[in-house]
Amino acid sequence: MNIKKLEGKERFDAYMTAVYCFHMRVEDTEAEREKYEADTKEDWGAFDEKGTLMGRILNHKYDLYLDGSTVRAGGIGAVATLPEYRDHGVIKAIFRELLPAAYKDGEVISTLYPFKHEFYRKQGYEVLTAWNTYSMRPGLLCRYRFDGEVKKWESGDRVSDFKKIYDVLHRDSIWHWLGRKKRCKVT
Question: In b/e form, how buried is each residue of 159-180, taking b as 16+ CB within 10 angstroms?
């Protein structure tokens, strides 16, 4: 089994593997071919001895806020194995190559939404948190005021402007206010 990062035509083959495995519909195959062959996302595949793509995993790189700091992360997606290659260790083999390479590239966390927890536990994943529930008295929110304006992000808008706002809101979030000792009067 040969594991490697995909490029060019291999990316389109990987996309078509996902189309097949996830029962997706493709309206314009040639447009999709052009799109995926030019794509730059980190896409990994496993090939048999004849050079046939057996399965693939996408690794979407992103920044994650963790305990007040930004860390590099990878989001696993589009995990697909052709039916005739299932139960042959294809995805496990890809993970064995992908995860160390991602770590070496600076990713300290790998995330995913698993279809089956037991399967991904075998690859080293675990549920970080199932659900958080918070309850508080409304009076704790009395210091939190909003006097700005709201603008919905539109396709084509620069993401950097929204990221700046998000970073400020993250830093000055409600949790900052809840940590203050001074009490406020509920009106």
Answer: eeeeeeeeeeeeeeeeeeeeee
Q: Which residues contact 19 (CB under 8 A, 6 or more apart)?
A: 25, 26
Strand order in the sheet with 2-5: 2-5, 42-47, 53-66, 69-81, 109-111
pTM: 0.70
Which residues contact residue 102 at a Cβ distance below 8 angstroms, ignoring those fewer than 6 apart? 42, 59, 74, 110
What pLDDT shows up at residue 167?
74
In DSSP terms, 65 is beta-bridged to 70
Task: Give the integer Cα–Cα distance in Å for 134 and 123.
Answer: 32
Domains, the chain, ordered by start: 2-121 (3.40.630.30), 138-178 (no CATH)
Residue 166 has pLDDT above 80, yes or no: no
Instruction: Give the rounded distance of the alpha carbon of 181 from its chain centre.
Output: 37
By C-alpha distance, which of 130, 66, 121, 88 is closest to 3? 88
With 90 as the cut, is the pLDDT of residue 152 above it?
Answer: no
